[in-house]
Batch of 4 targets.
Target 1
Amino acid sequence: MSELEASFQRDLVDAWYPRSVDERHGGYVTGFDNAWQANEETNKYLVGQSRHIWVLSQLALFEGDTGYSAQARHGVRFLIEQMWDHDRGGFYEAVTQAGVPIEREKKSAYGMSFSIYALSAFHAATGDEAALEYARKAFLWLDRFAWDSEAGGYIDDLSLDGNWTRKRIGNGDTLAPGSKDYNSSIHILESYTSLYTVWPDEHLRQRLQQMLEIVRDRFVQEPGYLHLIFERDWQPLSFRDKGRDAVLGKLAYDHVSWGHDVETAFLMLEAVEALHGEVDAKTAKTAKALVDHAMATGWDERLGSLYEGGYYFEESGPLEVVMPNKIWWIAAESLNALLLMSQLYPEEPKYWQAFADQWAYIKEYQIDPVNGGWMSVGLDSDPLAASRAKAYRWKANYHDARAYMNCIRMLRGEFHLTRH
């Protein structure tokens, strides 16, 4: 416990703050090299900016403020003033360092979900009404333009005006407008859970319930993994029938992602607890299946931690590891999910043991012992990981921050879920 708390302070709090706060331009710095030297030329992205706001808001609650709400407010101001599209509504996906919109980036449900997540968390930490107003506005914009009123679910790929656009799947191939993917869907679930805790609106509650059911009952496949992309009518996108080479060339759009599976287990449990005050049997069973399948098929039995991705080349055949890297966010989400499952199922000691093994792996291979913070890839899968960037567009600190804070709360007995 003390070891986890010490790492939380050194490798999360002290590593990222206040150095991430961009006092010159507003918002937060996007890029840092391996030794935490800032790359001041990089653009700023909605997801990364929002994740810093969320983390700082959670730190304010976790630590009793100590100045974190002021650092979060710095980002909220940038988000509202520089990233909100005051003509068409919704948040821009990206802006320059100084806050000028980069319109070629268009808009996305994925990015919008993180703005809702951040602003609702900031309101929870501070009571700030402007943050709640923009969280509601983002929800209403997303629901107006991205919700599929005929087939259900949210469309991720949007134009600046909110029109559905085609999803590129590589080599010039596209899907017709209206495709749905689990990555945007699980984070919409996450953001709506957060917003619902501070704004228990009936329409929002309905959408949260619908998204829980869509993630649990459509995206999750037997025996316990998420299918990545569906077309608008819920036909699954798959390259299996095109042969091994075609699959390996399109893994970004069709594979089993064990990190997303264990993350989704947590997000579903969190959502159902917010909706109903307890975890129902169906959701608990599905969450358990996601974690069990990940541990059975994607876990490194020798060193610990989950691999990045696998593939069922034959529908009823074995799941083959095809993406063998150990990614930082997957390790973080595993840590959180395994301890949570240990609490939900104390009669099964495998979860506690796997949690301990995951933490041992993180200490040995994921944390930079020289410069602090988490490396993007574990040293066992990339011996040069210590020389690579600590932060970039897709690497901020919300996965590891959430894992640290949730696990510390659980170990302190301050957080638990109730099985029905």
Target 2
Amino acid sequence: MKFIVKLFPEITIKSRPVRKRMIQRLGTNLEVTLRRVDEQIKVRNNWDKIDVVCVPGTEHLRDEVVSVLSRTPGVHAFLEVREFPLVDFHDAYERTRDAYAELLRGKTFKVRVKRSGRNHDFTSVDMERYIGGGLNQHTEAAGVDVRTPQVWVDLEIVDDRMFIVTERHQGLGGFPLGTQEPVLSLISGGFDSVVASYMTMRRGCKTHFIFFNLGGYAHEIGVKQVALHLWQRYGSSARVKFVTVPFEEVIGELLQNVHHSYMGVILKRMMLRAAERAADFMKIDALVTGESVAQVSSQTLTNLALIDKATDKLVLRPLVTSDKQDIIDLSKQIGAFEFAKSIPEYCGVISDRPTTRGKMERVLEEEANFDFDVLEQALKKVQVIAIDEIVENINAHAAVEALTRVGANQVIVDIRASHEQEKKPLNMPGCEILSIPFFKLGSEVESFDTDREYLLYCEKGVMSQMQAHHLQEKGFANVKVFRPESI
């Protein structure tokens, strides 16, 4: 089983040293992530592509390899190929027929041949005509269509090897993670900040997260879940930090001493000040926010300019001209929609007839009433955790009893998203299993029988721990975690 990884086109137009560095980084990233699928997978860097080779007998891992390659920044597309020695045209035709005969049944097709490497005594067109003629005569294809074929029959010739492309997959695009400078993303867990974080990851920035907790531990649980999701899917080739800043008292100070019309702008300025301090410590030069022009009152151009003046850091806004629906649609594409829709936007609770055209003199006047010692105290309580440690140990105080066996009076609750449940069903004969995606738990838990125990299950055991801890805090002591030894 072999895959040919095509580079994102913007990589190929870089200078030779930059292109070489990006290819090396992409290869390293793929090695890190694919090693988790199978330690024997080989990644080989070339000037115009990267080869991913799986050892024989690992065909059952094909879907996992495809998933990793499709979610790796820097990959434009990748081809599943079968590799053979290049003998002659007729041998090439026979191998192509064996690979494509069923796929061509009743469909039009066109053969494409791409050559590279040593000099060949034939042209790509010569081979296309020979193989195309053979397929047209000796398969049940509907014929050749050179303009709009239903099936493309793709072959690549490299030196004395022939690669028959059996399937083509779209990649994520962008630059390899780590080829650009790191950034610190202000993540609230809502659609905007989540998608903005994804976009900087896709562009090659090692994206750390800073979270301003306005809603207690439940809020923190939700944001950690979505940040972990982003990292696991698009950024796990690099370790990043998750920074938590307790901001409840800052909100209290704003409510008491700042005029309601300026609370939104000043809250954002306080967040940028705190993020700047964290970024200085982490040696990061740029902050990322999910703001979009005129989406809310604090995001008018006038107010954004006032907010930016609170920091000397570069503030990146990947969504600055994006429509809300486009942001929501992208959150669905990256698998973050269900997370984000269940997290309240706490910033909105302090919006009361907000100004859309703030004045710097008034901002400074209002901030003069704010006790900045409250902000300093919040910064002293900052918690920093490597995001992969969320998987290993959410937090010492968040541990909930995890059971490996199911008793007669216990019910398993599969809290994975619906598509995860369909892809890998939980098979536990003799056990009662409820399918309740995590984002519906809050409403469904009210109907749980108080005389029974409910064991939350997810594949890695992280989300189940978070949700169980949250529900126990709300008084549902009969909720625990199910972590089977094997399924």
Target 3
Amino acid sequence: MAPDRLVVGFDLDMTLIDSRPGIAAVWDAVSSRSGVFVDSALAVSRLGPPLAHEAAEWFPPERVAEAVELYRGLYPDTAITASALMGGAAEAIAAVRKHGGRVLVVTAKNTAHAKLHVDHLGLDVDEVIGGVWAEQKGEVLREHGATIFVGDHLGDIRGARAAGALALGVPTGGLSTQELREAGADVVLADLADFSFWLDDHMLERRLAALESELAGLGSVLVAFSGGADSAFLLAAAVRALGPDKVAAATAVSASLPDAELEPAREFAASLGVVHHTPRTDEMSREGYRANAGDRCYFCKAELVEVLAPLAEELGITHIATGTNADDGRAGFRPGIRAAAERGAVTPLKDAGFTKEQVREASLRWGLPTWDKPAAACLSSRIAYGLTITPARLARVEQAEVALRAVLAEASVPVRNLRVRDVGDAARVEVDAELVELVTALEDAHEAVLAAGFDVVEVDPKGFRSGSMNELLPNPQRYR
């Protein structure tokens, strides 16, 4: 089960914005107009509680409401433009967005004024809720499903605790790190500039826990193991959750698998103590695969799962799992995902919310050699849609890529991502964008591809990009 969607709440004053200059100016104006002295410097040193609390420090009880009304009337024209973002505020919000989360501003400031600040400073938030303090903030956070609240005041910590959310303190207001910790903050950051790093780590831990729970619930699993970063990480995670006796790996062998992928896959599985199976698949026998329309991957994945199903049954394994991640699930153009799902395959990485970046980060933590392995889609992905898939075409592409990598290595060209796309009689070479000019000028590189059987070679000026063949489809939506 995927973890619930991330919802993060932020306090406003001295957490997201430095409103002290504007608030001081308002208090000075209130003092001048009311005839009651207000030490504005002292007032702004203790921001956090509701406005009436501060007014009561200076005005007699019968005049507090009057002071609040005067303050609020002066505020829009006096305080908004004088306030500025706290360091790291925009980046902190962007970090939540990066993880697909929602952002709330929950503040004691009245909602109208809080929204003026948010709009003036261009903060990308989903909702602003004002007029709440301490435990009242907790009620709002709970109502919106927030699991993290960031603030600088004791009342913010109290609000987070009341909501059962993680309380993150930042000592950018009047409280020290020690005071925030003593108040019950789960985490105290130096400032918001550290928030994105903390959140990346927090979300990875959260998703690792979700993945372990997901895999443990499967009982046993046969991993469709291509040898790439995603399926390698899934295989390692399955072993951690279930033990090697409840896990098996299967790498489908066919004309679409580059020969260079098989031995590393076998070695990786062996390093985990997992039995590695190499069943043969015959996607070439499927007309839809050979026809190579936009839904080619549907027929390839259907063949894979239908071959693995009897193997899983023979091994007494209850589930077949693919390395589909959350980014794949959001990409839209993935007919292969649909084919696997229709045949009962499970997608633990996707279900736990794992992105490609998180797969690589977790793999690095675990010391997996595949953590930085470049994407290596099957050879058929190199053939332009509409061209019939044949063993000869696949072999030509593989030969061209092997020869081209050898030439680039000899020339000390540090290529990471490389594809030779078959667009008919011509080959379109894609390499890392920063290497396009260099490879274009390298005559030996062109000769290596021509020697594989192509008549023409061109280097794509846009550089490597996954799924570039989809750009040639007239209507990719129909294949989703």
Target 4
Amino acid sequence: MANRVLPSVVAIENRPDTSWHSAKPSPDDGAMNGENPFKGTPFEDMFRGGQIPMNPGMNPRQAPRSQGGIGSGVIIDAAAGIVLTNNHVVEGGGKVIVKIQDGREFEAIGVFTDPKTDIAVVKIKGDSSLTAAKLGNSDATSVGDWVVALGQPFGLESTVTAGIVSAKNRGIGITDRENFIQTDAAINPGNSGGPLVNLYGEVIGINTAISSRGGGNNGVGFAVPSNLARWVSDQLVANGTVQRAYLGVAIQPVSYELANQLGVAPKGGVAVTNVFPDTPAAKMGFKSGDVIVKFGQTKVATPQQLQLAVERSPMGKTVSVEVVRDGKTIALNYDPEAAPNDFANNGKLKAPSGTKMSSLGIEVSTLTADVAKQLGVKGEAGVVITQVQKGSRADDAGLSPGIVVSQVNRQDVKSAADFEKVVKADEDGTILLLVRNEQGSRFVVIEG
């Protein structure tokens, strides 16, 4: 396997365009004070000669910062000269150089990136002597399968490390779209962008990150699944950018407590907490409290799985969505639409004083038009939490001032009076709230 795949593995260097400018500190510059600010560093000699390496437009008194990157990649199409790698390997501009196993170097004639998945495509001149690797089906990979990571760690050519698939569908908070394969095969600096390969010689992932306190391998590495990388790279090659579909809902995982309230199994789907107006979800008839259990042929148990499934929906092809509503299964049809660039809500709320609700330990006020405008929720109705008593049931549930409550026990509340009426009907029992803040909507369970 190693002999077959290694010829397709390349080293990638991002050489920044660097200009040299004179850096003469002014007499009143207290930060420099006429002294060498880089004394004891590799830049000491450069400054002593009156020169600092800089990027165009850089403030002369800022410390120089390297914009270059070194990593790995894998050729997936020899005739077209297509190399798959990570965005963080090639980002920042400059000249991208691809070095293949026989020592030849190619300058990239095109670099296309998708920061949301940290995937990039580097295009070089096609050559019949290049060797391409085969992209495998990452969905068919199982936890426990043997895998091999290939790359150029620490600048060492043609390195191979072995391990197993430790987990799938990991999200670690480094990119917007995450569905990582976790492996204990060593992924060290310089391996980024290289392939993670099964024993059939098929690329099932693109090595992307490690979890490490000291910067070395701790047996916890992450790779972008090949199916996601293939979908991104196909669009980058065809269009130079990635077009994603969207649904138009706010979602959250189904916890054990929430599952009991919504009538589904824990992790048995993804809960809808808000349906945005004038979106595909609104046209489909989605409601807050719906649980999406299957999207097309994909069973979804996490928000990441649903998001990726929605975004990869082909335009012009209707997708069936299986939803649990009030304990009953229904089917909705989704006609994919491209996500608008400005589909986001970062409004912040300033809440007025309101009515005390001592049984839960919170104070609420009717949501006014001014507050709704601050939040950016046109047409939204509900109440605003203005105060939370420390140690109360609401405090234990994680509620805080500034949160908007739009439902109590699946009933819409449009005023503080509505809120009080619904809560008092079952104030000693478990209460389910649908809440919203600047991060979005979610369900909160207040235990009895």
